[in-house]
Amino acid sequence: MGHAGVARLSVLLGQALRLASDRSAVSLNGMDIKTLQDALHQAPFRPFNIHADGRIIRVQHPEQVLITPDKTTVVVAGMDGGLAILDLDHISSLSMAPKRGGKAAA
Questions:
Q1: Total number of domains in the chain
Q2: CA 25 – CA 8 distance, rounded (Å)
Q3: In a domain, 43, yes or no
Q4: Where are the beta strands (DSSP E) in 30-90?
Q5: Any idea what the CATH number is for the domain that residue 39 is in?
Q6: Whether this model's pTM surpasses 0.70
Q7: 103 in a structural domain
Q8: What is the pLDDT of residues 29-84, one digit of tens each?
């Protein structure tokens, strides 16, 4: 991702954080925050999918994801410029994204 892309992503995440902070807090009955953080900090990073509310959201880079300070909201910046704002308790699971060439990740 080039400098312009990173700058745009930073602006989008800032806007999403302001939007998310306006939402009321929810209980942590869904995804465990540590599971998500572990997926984001694995080295080397491996792309994964977030399953939430019947949707599958692909995370190709850890920089795409912002977890709000109260750890109740997750914001994912899509590679197309869109944003997904998810309550943590609406995330049902994570799965490893297929490797290039269509083979499933182990």
A1: 1
A2: 27
A3: yes
A4: 48-52, 55-59, 65-67, 73-77, 83-87
A5: 2.30.30.100
A6: no
A7: no
A8: 467 899 999 999 999 999 999 999 999 999 999 999 999 999 999 999 998 889 99
Residue 104 forms part of a structural domain: no
pLDDT value, residue 100 = 61
Cβ atoms 94, 49 nearer than 8 A: yes
pLDDT of residue 27: 34
- Could you tell me the two tokens for 46? 């491996």
| Per-residue buried b or exposed e for 19-40, using 16+ beta carbons within 10 Å of the residue's own CB | ebeeeeeeeeebbeeeebeebb
Domain enclosing residue 85, as ranges: 3-96
> How many Cα atoms sit within 13 Å of 57 on the Cβ side?
26
